[in-house]
Amino acid sequence: MEKRRTSIKPSIEVEEFINLLHGSDPVRVELTRLENEVRDKERELAEAQAEIRALKLSDRAREKACEELTEELAKVDGKLKLTESLLETRNLEIKKINEEKKAALAAQFAAEATLRRVHAAQKDDDMPPIEAILAPLEAELKLARSEGSALSPYIFALVMDEITKDIQGEIPWCMLFADDVVLVDESRTEVDRKLELWRRTLESKGFRLSRTKTEYMGCEFSGIRPVDGDVCLDGQVVPTKDTFRYLGSMLQSDGEIDEDVSHRIRAGWVKWRQASGVLCDKKVPQKLKGKFYRTAIRPAMLYGAECWATKRRHVQKMSVAEMRMLRWICGHTRKDRIRNDDIRDMVGVAPIEEKLIQHRLRWFGHIQRRPPEAPVRIGILNHFENTRRGRGRPRLTWEEAVKRDLKEWNVSKELAIDRSAWKLAIHIAKLQDDNRALDRLTKSKEAALLEAERTIEIALAKAALVDDLQNKNQELIKQIEICQEENKILDKMHRQKVAEVEKLTQTVRELEEAVLAGGAAANAVRDYQRKVQEMNEEKKTLDRELARAKVTANRVAVVVANEWKDANDKVMPVRQWLDERRFMQGEMQQLRDKLAISERTARSEAQLKEKYHLRLKVLEEGLRMSASGARTSVSSRRQPNGGANSGSKANGFLARRPSFQMRSSSTATTIVSHAKGASKSFDGRLVNGSGHSLNGSTDDSENNSDEKINGELSNGESEDTVSGLLYDMLQKEVISLRKACHEKDQSLKDKDDAIEMLAKKVETLTKAMEVEGKKMRREMATMEKEVAAMRVEKDQDIKAKRLSINTKPPAQNTAQLPSARNTPRAGLMRHSQE
């Protein structure tokens, strides 16, 4: 839009210049109008071309999505064909295995027939020698003696069957596999009896049971604890175990499969470690590694899994172990943030949960196809109603697990009779899940395409509104810039007011410190007054003691003189009298020294007292001057305050008050300076005190001390009154300063209110923008509806006219065709102009 306007401006200026030179030319005006129409048509053509390009892009995206879907369908078809070919190959392999089994059974029957002939011939007297009977089988017997021969285990099994044919029981009460024997019964005593019978039978034929490999386990499936006791083998106690291992499976006494699952996982890891050189080789392709895993490691993990009644924790344990193996094969860890499905796609391995279900359903189909007297059918435990169930939740049975799998895979139970149909049903159920996932993916892609078309249409509709919205946005941007400038000015004023408030708080703190210093000085003065009084009292007591000492000395001297004069025997020696006199003179000298020290301290205290009087007078005069100045300032401030507030409210800003700040700061500085000066003089005078000697008599000192004490008391009283006035005046000043701070806070609140009003205005402007945008969207929706309605009308008109063409003569049809073509175009042009 800006480039177009810049290109139009010079042409308009040239046209104005030509019109000024030549006057108004109607041809020129018509030409300019036509040029403008041509430009409009070109703009509409460009918009139509842009719409066509967008539609082409959407068609290409749709075609690409369709191609992807066709490729995915082709892949699925290929997978189906591969599964069908695999099924055919597996069927052929099964046929081969069945033929081999038949051949093995024929050989077994032949061997059994020979053994029967041997036993029958032993009963007859005319029996041929055994060498003649076994002569054709001599080569096979020689081979059977070695451990590596295929006939060795077979002959051992035949011998075991022949020896124990009288003591063998039905399955599952007695199970034989090579040299492994499992004896099952309902009580411990019966198991003990069977074990003793087998021991005696085998020992009678030259065999014996291994005492170290024999184990005993008591089952608690019904919740009833077995009878206490031990199972013995030839007088030796058989060890009792909680787990019983048979043919690679681990059976627990409580019927759970936790130990069997962990044992199978360990077996899988053993196989994996044996093949780690191939699986961890980066040169081997990932698909080949997956194939090796499917054929060598996963069968070891799923051995006996078709008989498990798996719970969620068992499946999770197996899947975790499998994913660890697969991530190790691919060379990734969980820190790489790669999904499990991606890892499986790299290797080409299906989830182990599906394989568990598949194995279970295969075994279920095998059981269903067997006759009722088959050992597989006999081995299924029947639940009786009279048995007592243990505490807690009922255990998950194998039949319930199979029902859950059939319901999950949507497979009918009746298909198990037909082996091929059952196998196909299991594979098809898995493929149906894959097809459902693909259907969901295709539907999501179609929905995404529809949404893309809708977004393209909405974008085309919004393109016409972009210019108007840009103009409105520019206006709003200008308004926002103005509001931002106003906010900057308000921020500056706010900072200034904050600085003023900080200065006022600093002055308040200084005043509080001055008040505290004055209080401390007053307390010091009171302490000194108390000390002076105590010293005066001590002086009085000393004077009294001195007077008493003098009186006692005079009396002693008189008594001694009288005694010395009257009686010759009681004359006092001169040396003793002189010593006592010296002692009394020394005590008198000490008392005189104490009096001199007390007088010195009294004089120094009097000097300090006079200095305090002078300081307090100076402070009182300064405070009187400051209080009068503050009152005048408050009155002068209150008079113009209303006009200032009204002016500030009218202009949208608040006025400043520098006069109060200057006055408050001047008063605070004078008070602080006085306090600092007082503290300095106080400190200096304390150090520079001078001492005086006491040369007068004791009576003069007593009189002077009394006068000084009375003067000090009067000075102390006056000093107390002055310090109290000072404290009150300072309190008043602090209160006035607090009021000023409150007024400043109020002004700041007013500024904040103004800022909030501006913010509200900005919010209203943004809301107005949103409302206008919503209106434009609604208008666009109504316009789309109108266009759709016009298209429907157009289609209906075309259909009606086609019918009329089929019914009316050709002349009328030719006459009506132009009107039918022109009416929708006119409607569309009117819509675009609006």
From TrEMBL:
Keywords: Coiled coil, Cytoplasm, Cytoskeleton, Microtubule. It comes from the Eukaryota. GO terms for cellular component: microtubule. PROSITE patterns: RT_POL. One of its GO terms (biological process) is cytoskeleton organization. Residues 627-653, 681-720, 793-834 are annotated as: Disordered. InterPro entries: DNA/RNA_pol_sf, MAP70, Rev_trsase/Diguanyl_cyclase, RT_dom. Belongs to the MAP70 family. This is Microtubule-associated protein 70-2. It comes from Rhynchospora pubera.
